[in-house]
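Q: Could you fold this chain for me?
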Amino acid sequence: MGEHTRLARRRGVLHRIRPTDVRSAIVWLAIATLMVLGATTAYAAHTLNLFELDGNTANGVAPGEDWDSVYASSNNTDRIFITDASGRFDDAYTGGGSKDINDIPSWLHSQGGVPDKDDLLHAFAVAYPSPTSPGRQAIYFGADRFAQNGASEIGFWFFQQDVGLNADGTFEGVHTVGDILVLANFTTGGKVNQVDIYRWVGGADPLALVAERTDCAETAGEVGGCGIVNSAPITPAWPYTPKQGPAGQIPAGGLFEGGIDPAGLGLAQRCFSSFMATTRTSHETNSQLKDFALGNFDTCSSITVEKQTDPDGAAGNFGFTLSPDPNSVGTRTLSDNGSYKFDRLSGGTYELSESSLPAGWDLTNISCDGGSPSYNLSTRKVTLTLVGIQNVKCTFTNTQRGQITVEKVTNPASTQLFSFAPSWTPTFSLSNGQSNTSNPLVPGTYSVSETVPTGWDLTSATCDD
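A: Sure. Below is the predicted structure, expressed as structure tokens.
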């Protein structure tokens, strides 16, 4: 584990619901995933019946989960809950270059307090396979804050690369075209009138506006995404202490939640691995950043290939490729018991192939634990379809060909030739002390017979295996 990971975890205590490598605290305003422009069927994030975007944390009569159940349980969906540090031990932005319009290496961080209304206490996110768009995901997010004595501006980044903290006060990682930023106003309990979704495109004007959305309560017919703030005090399932008011109760304007359906925004699928929640001085993309919460929220699928040989431990190197190869991994070479994980994959169809085999080997089995596999041993390929967030493992078993050696011994020693008729090759002849070794043979049943010359008797025929 790198130093930046250890630094990030000083921010707070991580309540992990789904195993994932979280570097720090997470999410402030939340939303994002899977992008690059494309046309798809449009749906509103809050009408997919996956999650309740209703300004509270309790599971209600509406279809889908809410944050209390995300906090308390885990299942096959991707979910995370973070408790963030507060006060002087809280990591925060510093320096004039810490702005969304600048690339990540320009950002700086240090421990220190932020205004109470911008201080994150908890953050959470969850992803589900979309029921309306095969291979797609819908993502829901939320956070609570320490004080509600004023509106705040919040933002949420989704990065395709891993982003972390360095010990020298810089950030590790860079932007990739297609990273997503969402900006929203965290009100004191009123309507969320601005939720802007941006895509990182790089260059002199690096943020392209993708969509403008508003409050979930007023966007029943609006597609793609929305946000909402609690308009009355609520009691969450997790421990919460506000700046003012009773412990265990989030005052009005203390909880923000939102969701996004990338298909509804006309965005093609893209997979993300890191995200960051931020507070800021204003809604503008060039505003100074304040607090942040950074971590790993894996919305990616993966395909792991494992190599097995028969006999076990036999020497041999085998190459594997994945097509398409979105991360330009190329060929990975494995020996017996080796494995490689093709990670950061979006939903879709992939072909996992074993390249040319070493001499004397055959591919005898392919077995995958998911992905609706279609096997083809003759071409050494399996076709897989990933839907939602899937982690599939495929085992390729190669069997080494054997060889048969026929050795002739006579008593007494003689130059007499003896003819042999094997089932694997044409006949051959041997005299005392001579032998014949076959080419590599595929596993199977083989036989050999000897024609005994006049005056000789076959007195013994033994095999060592």
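A (continued): Residues 13 and 459 are 80 Å apart (CA to CA).
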